[in-house]
Amino acid sequence: MGAEHDLHNDRLGPQELEIGVTDALQRHITRHVVPAPPVSQRKLDFEHARPRFLRECIAEATGVFLYVLPGIAAVAQFTVNGTNEHIPMSFFSNLLQVGFAFAFGISFAIITCASTSGGHFNPAMTISLAVWQGFPWKKVPYYILSQVFGAFMAALVLMGCYWPQISALRDANLAAHGTAVFNGGAASILVSYPNVTQTNQGFLFFQEFMVDAFLGFIIWSCLDPANPFVSPVSVPFTIGFAYAAMVWGFAGNTISTNMARDLGPRMVAAIFFGKEAFTYMDYSWISILISIPATLFATSFYELVIRDSLKVISSGHARHEEGEEGLSRHLTKTGGYQGPHGSDETVHGKMGA
Q1: 118 vs 55, 63, 138, 158, 263, CA distance in Å?
Q2: CB-based contact 181:280 (threshold 8 Å)
Q3: How confident is the model at residue 67 (pLDDT cuts 50, 70, 90)?
Q4: 35: left (phi over 0), alpha (psi -120 to 50) or beta
């Protein structure tokens, strides 16, 4: 087939090659593409027999795994190799790589798994979706358990991949400090710990609350069907880089951002480094729990202050609870819908109905 491609290349003029090899060769190679095999009834029966609920839980666990693993792997590079005299310090001496790792990890998680489970990947988002968007409450505990399990498995895999380096760092920490559980220690690869000077829990609470509220607000705005500035293609990267921005801005001051991302790896940290993983400076309750009220605060602010449900209806993504009659009654009472150019127009007129 390589010889055939060479012959086809010889037949192409220079102007055709300038538009791109893929575009220029497409008409020559498509006839060599083997068509996909037909879908068998056996495969359809197998897929139909899979419990939908189980697929959703597995997708949540897989998505969190894909999000957490590259992030904590970047932290491992930052922590383990940052003090390695054989590696240039400048390569590992900043949080840029960590922010990008979490950003792309979250983006890949959404791209690969959100179509199956909805892509919550965060207990705080699952609870917020149950409060505001009608997500079934009976599914909430199962989603949260799946998310924590995915993060737990990511931490276990990371420990398996980096165990020689982490164990050596742990031994050095024990020799120098008597513990490996502190910010910059071996345990901090898996979860965050405050700096030794951060003894004010009110400060740590406020910082975590604001970071998590910021992320919740960005995510909720991306989920708004009336938001014209995001598309399904851009949402994964918008959310991913919102996380990266918080890592770049606040990770040096200790943040968690996600109950599942923290609780799962913290259990692994307790396995390898002892119960101090949960008790160090009495910080773990902040890193595990604060994301939930912070995200509820952010989503409540968006729903009560920012949300424009009439725009959602006009874009065809929702309907009035009383149907057309209820919508007409609302428009009559309010004097119609104020269009983007300042003119009054009904929702039906805006939609071209």
Answers
A1: 11, 10, 16, 26, 21
A2: yes
A3: very high
A4: beta
Of 233, 299, 248, 288, the C-alpha closest to 264 is 288
pLDDT, residue 344, reads: 44
Sequence length of the chain is: 353
Q: Tokens for 236?
A: 């994964």
Dig out the tokens for 294 from the structure: 């912070």
Tell me which amino acid residue 120 is: H
Task: State the burial class of residue 174 (Cβ atoms within 10 Å of its Cβ: 0-12, 13-18, 19+).
Answer: middle
- The pair phi, psi for residue 192, each rounded to 5°, is -85, 150
The two three-digit tokens of residue 281, written as one number: 């400076």
Domain annotation for the chain: domains and CATH numbers: 53-306 (1.20.1080.10), 309-351 (no CATH)
Degrees (nearest 5) of the Cα angle 311, 316, 319? Answer: 80
Q: List 344's β-bridge partners, or say none.
A: 338
Identify the CA nearest to 94 among candidates 252, 253, 257: 252
- pTM metric for this prediction: 0.81
Which residue type does 326 have? G
19: pLDDT confidence band, cut at 50, 70 and 90? very low
Q: What torsion, rounded to 10 degrees, do the Cα atoms 84, 85, 87, 92 define?
A: 50
Q: What is the identity of the amino acid at 352?
A: G
Residue 88 has phi, psi (to 5 degrees) of -55, 125
- Give the C-alpha separation, 43 to 41, whole Å: 5
Other beta carbons within 10 angstroms of residue 41's beta carbon come to 8
